[in-house]
Specification:
Alpha-Beta Plaits
Length: about 180
């Protein structure tokens, strides 16, 4: 018979899982309590929740949240990082933080849009460019042909303007020479 505390924990985790854009399962074995506290604080500043829950409770919460794929990334002691914005941010933050602080934290799996990424595929997500960077690259590639087209179309017009302007520039030069002779 589940206790009231476990029921509340499953409900809370279920709500968090149903609202998140990405769920990252980590293996935190070997981390000290201070390191775990620092990690949670760092993630919280970025709007990412980190929870350590028993796998049986996590399975129940995943079912209740309508995300059964989360059960595939449960194996041994598991900590969940749940992101609510950029789906790649939690993975990147975890990998960078673990590397910078030399923590034994390992990304075990990622559930993103119902797809499960495990082991190396999950860690590879950390190397992908951010959404903003991809958008700027796309805009750059879309605008590049337009800039070249404008340059090509502008060439003959600029040549015409220079051709029409040449006699006027010569006339101005002749008038300036005449004016300097008369003044001198």
């Amino acid at each position: 018979m589940p206790t009231q505390k476990k029921i509340e924990m499953v409900e809370k985790l279920s709500q968090e899982l149903s609202g998140c854009t990405v769920t990252v399962a980590t293996n935190f074995s070997g981390m000290s309590m201070k390191a775990m506290s620092d990690l949670r604080s760092h993630l919280k500043q970025q709007g990412i929740k980190y929870r350590v829950v028993k796998n049986t409770l996590a399975q129940r919460a995943a079912e209740a949240a309508g995300q059964p794929a989360i059960k595939e990334i449960l194996d041994g002691p598991t900590g969940f990082a749940m992101g609510y914005g950029d789906p790649l941010a939690p993975v990147k933050l975890l990998v960078e933080y673990a590397r910078a602080n030399r923590l034994p934290l390992q990304v075990r799996g990622v559930v993103l849009d119902g797809m499960v990424y495990k082991d190396q595929a999950a860690r590879d997500l950390a190397t992908l460019p951010s959404r903003e960077e991809l958008a700027s690259r796309l805009v750059g590639q879309l605008s590049s042909p337009l800039v070249r087209l404008v340059t090509v179309l502008n060439g003959p017009l600029q040549g015409l303007a220079n051709t029409l302007n040449s006699p006027l520039a010569g006339l101005v030069s002749v008038l300036q020479q005449q004016a300097s002779r008369q003044a001198g």
